[in-house]
Design brief:
It contains 2 helices and 7 strands, in the order H-E-E-E-E-E-E-E-H. A hairpin with a 7-residue loop joins strand 3 and strand 4. The protein is α+β, with helices and mostly antiparallel strands and 127 residues long.
């Protein structure tokens, strides 16, 4: 089951527009639990680094981080569920909108993160 989850993630990345290259590393703990780490390089030299620890019996991820950076490796945004920012209503889920600001966020899927990135890339291309 976890391997099927990992296959869906890789297929999603392969089918996503604007991806120039990607690397994935996976660790299967058992049939239902595992760890996946990836780096996705986009055609504009921006990149998404992500980590998920997942149990397929549970909707929410055990742990996640999706960090999107520009070509100079400056963070554009990061979603994670690190247990800080307990003042937020969506704790532990939150989004760093820059180095100094955090806002409430629900747990995103990789697909949702990629769609947000696609919108940013499309807007850049229109300029």
């Amino acid at each position: 089951m976890i391997e099927a989850y990992f296959e869906r993630i890789e297929k999603m990345i392969q089918d996503f527009p604007y991806v120039w290259s990607y690397t994935l590393s996976k660790k299967v703990y058992n049939a239902k639990q595992g760890f996946i780490r990836g780096v996705i390089q986009f055609e504009d030299d921006a990149r998404l680094e992500f980590v998920e620890i997942k149990d397929t019996d549970v909707v929410e991820k055990i742990k996640y981080r999706y960090q999107y950076m520009n070509k100079d490796h400056v963070m554009i945004f990061r979603y994670d569920n690190a247990p800080h920012h307990s003042h937020l209503q969506t704790f532990p889920h939150h989004k760093h909108v820059d180095e100094d600001h955090v806002k409430e966020s629900q747990e995103p899927t990789l697909d949702e993160v990629l769609l947000g990135i696609a919108q940013k890339i499309r807007l850049q291309k229109q300029k």
